[in-house]
Design goal:
Layout (H helix, E strand, L loop, with lengths): L6 E8 L17 H8 L2 E7 L5 H10 L22 H7 L3 E6 L14 E2 L29 H4 L2 E2 L4 H22 L6 E10 L4 E2 L1 H4 L22 H10 L8 H31 L6 E7 L18 H4 E2 L1 E4 L7 E8 L3 H8 L17 H5 L8 E6 L8 E6 L2 E6 L2 E7 L17 H14 L2 H22 L26 H8 L13
Parallel strand pairs: 1-6, 1-8, 2-11, 3-4, 3-6, 5-7
Antiparallel strand pairs: 2-9, 2-10, 8-10, 12-13, 13-14, 14-15
Helix pairs in contact: 5-8
């Protein structure tokens, strides 16, 4: 019998672009577990991040608010402890909340409503990666580098492999521990992996799943430097430090490794689903698969994320609960900022009692009726490294509009031109669409005010980081608590009593016939 209040398990990959998944039509990548979830679940064909960079995207998703509204401007911006997250709301409503893996929290609050966190993070929690819009020409040591493209290929161990192996182990063990525990609250578990984020290196086992000659090259070839839009030029100037000449061989190697990394994540997802099956929780658990943003992966000659093109901003979103929702596909535009209200609705939480207004809308109506409510607008912003000005995007219907102070606007008919090659801005035939989306952008953002807030935040954080890096350093990075003296078998309880509590399913007592 299913619970009235389901368990919720959100599985996240990092930098996993929807266009490179077989669920969304890619013919080379192998991700059978995701494909199985999609076949029996609800697939959102046009889901977007709200900020194509790790931390701000995640903070927006967790809070249901645009990153610019909560000061989450970049990968070194703090999520204020007073901003409620989906974990706070679900915990208040009776859920047991746990985080395994990456969430890129910055600052001393490393829980943000999660009752348990079973791993550390892969990235630093301090202000050291703060951009500097006051000096846009300065090179940032920690900025993405083309070394990750030039050196792409097989590698048996990387920091990302170390981290994600730990994340999978910890999450699976937590699922078993929850099933053996006397705590009968429904759970909300986020398991968040670092792959397929660069560096583009993956163990030979996953590299060998692909025929190298079948790895496809970018559909949109590199754009000549003088023909690139201003933001694409800024990004390339930040990646390209003159150390590497990227050839077709490098591009194919990077894509090959990236595809292998998707298969790696798919295998970890399979382990989580196996744990749900083994603990009898599959029917009671709604599984959501998503990513924080995508990866250009050489399209247009660009890499990584930090822009609004489809490969960087469109993300997978699959909701698997076949006992609750009929399988199907949803075509309208949605975004990660919709995750919080959706999860709260699925958990039966009264959103009328929330203390702050949300920017997202619940996707629950779309899970039961793909036609939904007619909503179709996505808002996206970029305020971090690789630019020195705010950038904004509006996607509505078939059109995508991008704008920013000093940059000429771009308008693409994504349905007719999925490669976003033909800029329709100022084309009289599309003037009405451009005017509508430009008006949405003006009403959503005050570009000058956002600009001033970003610069003020950067200056303050650079000063704080400098001070805290002087003398004795106190790190904010999360260290998972563990009391090994209470693990396994200890003389805190009888041997057989302790062992009996750990069996799953519970071992039955011997009968007279067994003696």
């Amino acid at each position: 019998m299913m619970r009235d209040r389901p368990n919720l398990m959100l599985v996240m990959a990092d930098q996993m672009a929807a266009p490179f998944l077989p669920v969304y039509g890619h013919r080379v990548v192998k991700a059978p577990t995701m494909a199985r979830l999609a076949e029996n679940g609800v697939v959102f064909d046009n889901a977007y991040c709200n900020f194509p960079l790790c931390a701000p995207s995640r903070f927006s998703m967790l809070t249901g608010r645009l990153a610019s509204r909560i000061g989450a401007f970049d990968n070194a911006a703090e999520l204020p402890a007073a901003v409620p997250t989906v974990a706070h709301h679900l915990r208040l409503s009776g859920y047991r909340t746990c985080l395994a893996g990456k969430m890129h929290f910055i600052g001393p609050d490393q829980l943000h409503g999660f009752e348990e966190r079973v791993t550390t993070d892969i990235y630093p929690a301090d202000f050291g990666w703060t951009p500097d819009w006051d000096n846009p020409g300065d090179r940032l040591e920690w900025f993405h580098s083309l070394v990750n493209v030039a050196a792409a290929g097989p590698s048996e161990r990387t920091l990302q492999i170390d981290f994600d192996d730990e994340v999978a182990f910890a999450a699976v063990r937590w699922l078993y521990d929850h099933a053996r525990d006397s705590d009968d609250r429904p759970f909300f578990l986020i398991t968040s992996f670092s792959h397929p984020h660069d560096p583009y290196n993956i163990p030979r086992k996953y590299w060998d799943r692909y025929d190298h000659d079948e790895i496809d090259l970018p559909a949109v070839p590199p754009i000549a430097p003088d023909e690139r839009d201003p933001h694409s030029r800024r990004l390339w100037e930040n990646y390209d430090r003159g150390e590497y000449r990227i050839t077709e061989r490098h591009v194919r190697n990077a894509r090959h490794a990236y595809y292998g990394a998707i298969s790696y994540v798919d295998d970890r997802l399979s382990e989580l689903l196996d744990a749900l099956d083994a603990t009898g929780r599959s029917d009671d658990t709604i599984v959501v698969v998503a990513s924080d943003h995508g990866d250009m992966l050489g399209e247009r000659g660009l890499w990584f994320k930090m822009c609004f093109f489809e490969a960087a901003s469109r993300v997978p979103l699959i909701v698997h609960a076949p006992h609750r929702f009929r399988p199907g596909r949803v075509g309208c535009n949605v975004s990660l900022v919709d995750m919080l209200p959706t999860l709260l609705d699925l958990a039966g939480v009264d959103r009328a009692m929330l203390p702050v207004p949300l920017d997202g809308e619940s996707l629950q109506p779309l899970l039961t009726d793909s036609a939904g409510s007619g909503r179709d607008t996505v808002l996206c912003e970029y305020l971090a490294e690789g630019t020195d000005r705010p950038l904004f995007m509006v996607r509505k219907g078939r059109y995508k509009y991008t704008t920013g102070p000093g940059d000429p606007p771009q308008l693409f008919d994504v349905a007719a031109d999925p490669g976003e090659v033909d800029n329709l801005a100022d084309d009289a035939r599309h003037a009405a669409a451009q005017a509508e989306l430009a008006d949405i952008a003006r009403r959503t953002w005050d570009a000058d005010a956002v600009w001033q807030r970003v610069i003020a935040s950067q200056r303050a954080r650079r000063a704080v980081f400098g001070a805290l890096a002087t003398g004795r350093r106190q790190l904010w990075d999360y260290a998972p608590p563990r009391d090994a003296a209470r693990d396994y078998i200890r003389n805190l309880a009888g041997l057989y009593e302790r062992e009996a509590r750990a069996f799953l399913p519970r071992r039955s007592e011997p009968t007279d016939d067994d003696c």
